[in-house]
Design goal:
Elements (H helix, E strand, L loop, with lengths): L2 H13 L2 H8 L3 H15 L4 E4 L2 E4 L1 H25 L7 E7 L1 H18 L3 E7 L2 H9 L5 E5 L7 E10 L1 E4 L1 H4 L6 E2 H4 L5 E3 L12 H10 L2 E3 L2 H9 L5 E3 L5 H5 L4 E6 L4 E9 L6 H19 L6 E2 L5
Parallel strand pairs: 3-4, 3-5, 8-12, 9-10
Antiparallel strand pairs: 1-2, 5-13, 6-13, 6-14, 7-11, 7-12
Length: about 300
């Protein structure tokens, strides 16, 4: 098995067609077919089912694709790290950020990349924490931040900050009372929640409490904007950290109350694959993201306790 075989294999897998893969790679179709055949012979198993209209991966092909994509990404990263001179940081990098982190640092992050790292091509993937964790496991992003992640032996996670979860909504729903609201009182309100599943761990990592809220939740959505729009329309409230709705809190459109009995908090983690090759680009992006988060917390724009202590 060699790099060329894996490159051809990935192209065929992604295009599901020999001629399309050959066109993409600018090589002869016969060359790709030859290398795929040799690879199958070496591994002792078919990787594709040949069909009149294309190539369908077998179960073995599906497994190899997961390995091949990560291997080729690691090779590209190593090349980028070694080919550029010592004073230059360049290359492609993908980072996954949940909605709250996007609200907190996306603009300064983009501004710094454009100003300080002109030869870096940064892909920012926004998503729910569960999907970002899965993307990191699948090597679809190089670095990710997420809340309350599930444990995975292939991923290193480091605590970044802890923030309090608040009851947020229009005063017509949660009143303009500045005093805390008990969880029991909150559970009687119309609470708009993210649909139950891995993504809900990002908001509250206590299944018993989550079930109590879901029992009376009139709507469950898989949309951050849907929840925000519902709150602004006075259809219900939600539980969220300050940064999630800080613009609407600042302009008075929404009101927030501390939750007690019990108090709710959540942890933001930074994650990366244990087998990810360390390089200057990774280190630069990681430091930039952490510095921006710490600055937001220090300036009180993001109400949280910064916890990062380094690897």
């Amino acid at each position: 098995m060699d790099i060329k075989q894996l490159t051809y294999f990935v192209a065929v897998f992604e295009h599901a067609n020999l001629s399309h893969a050959a066109s993409h790679l600018a090589v002869a179709q016969s060359a790709i077919s030859h290398h795929i055949g040799n690879l199958e012979a070496e591994l002792g198993t078919p990787l594709f089912v040949r069909k009149p209209r294309g190539m369908e991966p077998t179960a073995a092909g599906q497994r190899l694709f997961s390995h091949a994509r990560h291997i080729l990404a690691s090779i590209r990263t190593a090349e980028q790290d070694m080919l550029h001179d010592a004073e230059e940081i360049a290359g492609e990098f993908a980072i996954g950020l949940p909605y709250s982190v996007m609200k907190g640092i996306s603009v300064p992050l983009m501004r710094k990349i454009l100003a300080d790292f002109p030869k870096v091509r940064l892909s920012i993937v926004e998503g729910l924490s569960g999907s970002l964790h899965a993307a990191l496991v699948a090597s679809e992003v190089d670095l990710a931040l997420f809340y309350n992640p599930q444990r995975n032996q292939s991923i290193t996670v480091e605590a970044v900050l802890e923030e309090e979860i608040l009851c947020v909504g229009r005063t017509s729903v949660i009143s303009d009372n500045p005093e805390p609201i008990t969880f029991a009182e909150l559970s009687e309100l119309p609470v708009l929640l993210l649909r139950h599943g891995a993504s809900s761990r990002a908001l509250i990592d206590r299944p018993g409490l989550l079930n109590r809220l879901e029992a009376n939740a009139p709507l469950q959505l898989n949309s951050i904007s849907g929840i925000t729009n519902g709150m602004l329309a006075g259809l219900g409230c939600t539980i969220a950290p300050q940064v999630f709705v800080r613009d609407h809190l600042d302009d008075g459109a929404l009101h927030a109350r501390t939750i007690i009995e019990p108090k709710l908090t959540r942890q933001l983690y930074l994650g990366y694959r244990r087998d990810y090759p360390s390089n200057r680009l990774f280190e630069a992006i990681q430091k930039l993201v952490l510095d921006l988060i710490e600055q937001e917390v220090r300036n009180k724009a993001w109400v949280a306790n910064y916890r990062y202590r380094g690897s």
